[in-house]
Structure formats: structure tokens, C-alpha cells
Amino acid sequence: MEHIKAYNSMELETVRGTLIIEGPVSSEKLKSYDFHEGLVAFRPPAQQHKALIEIADLPEGRIIIARQQEMIIGYVTYLYPDPLERWSEIKMDDLIELGAIEVIKDYRGASVGKNMIRLSMTDDAMEDFIIITTEYYWHWDLKGTGLNVWDYRKIMEKMMSAGGLEYYATDDPEISSHPANCLMARIGKRVEPESIQKFDQLRFMNRFMY
């Protein structure tokens, strides 16, 4: 499947100044920017910066960033699901995962995440894909925000819905292990019915297991 990446950008005014939201950004562009030391949700900042550069070089990889001048303060990643995850068990060229989203604490509440996701969906190529995201409460910054799992989940749902992602039921054991966990997805307008059927199979793989 051909992976077309149409670059878009926008300005977002915040109380801490103007942010540029842009993407998908190339690995070269990512290398030229600084990476904020507060981006620590998944791994140490230098390692995460390197990981984003590597994702940007993948044919399907898409990185959307928020930056203040030359400093990245937030990002969203899109790529094929991890080969070890359920979502790779049926090979699908047109299923990609919103794998990670992170914004530094100083800019939380400024709709940065929502606008990064919204911008990513302005690329017409996204209509060729089923885009999924798996939300697990153990990835959420409950301590830093002071929110309980349900309030945090509401924020995540609101943010994902800005990009057209909706709640989908699944029997995936990890998602089913806690009621706050969830699967959300957006099915592009040009996705074939056969792919939607495969996605339904992936969602309910345990249906006939006893």
C-alpha cells in the first residue's frame, strides 16, 4: 500500500506563547529540533527523540509535533501495531495505530493534544486507513494530574474524538482487564468492507474460545 504523507501546519495561541503544530515531520526535521526534557512518559527524552526519528523513517510512520520555536513540547505517533500485539495477528496494510501521545505538563489544558490529533486527520490519506488507539490506565499520568481513572479517561476520549476516533468493543484481555481501558478507532471513508471485517475479527478473537 502506498503511504502518502501530506504535510500540514497550524499555529496555536496559548498563555505561554504561540505553538506550531505540524506534521507529518521528516526524520531530518526532527533531528534539527530540540526535545523537551519534560517528555518522559515512555522513556528518557534522548531515547524518545531517537525513537521518533526512527518512526518518521518508516514508510507508514507519521510524527505530528507541537513546538515552541525549535523546542518540541508534544508529539503524536502513528505506525503499524507492534508485531507482538493482537492487532498484528491478521496482516493489514491499512490498519495503523496512534501509538503514543505526550505533551509536557506546562501545556496541559491548552488543547495541544487535541489539535495535534485534529491536524493529523486533515491529511486525506488518512481516509485509506483504520486508525486505532489502545488506552490503558497504567500509561496515564494519574499522579501528576491528580485525576482518577474515570476523569482521565474522559479527557482521553474527548481528545481522541477530536480526530474522529470512537469507542469500539473488544475482548482483548489487556483491555478487558480494567473497565477504564478501552479501544478507540477511526475507519477512513475509503476503507474496504473486507478490511472492516478483518478489524472485527481482530476485536473479537476470543469469541469461540471456551
From TrEMBL:
Residues 36-119 form the N-acetyltransferase domain. SUPFAM superfamilies: Acyl-CoA N-acyltransferases (Nat). This is N-acetyltransferase. One of its GO terms (molecular function) is acyltransferase activity, transferring groups other than amino-acyl groups. It comes from the Bacteria. GO terms for biological process: acetoin catabolic process.
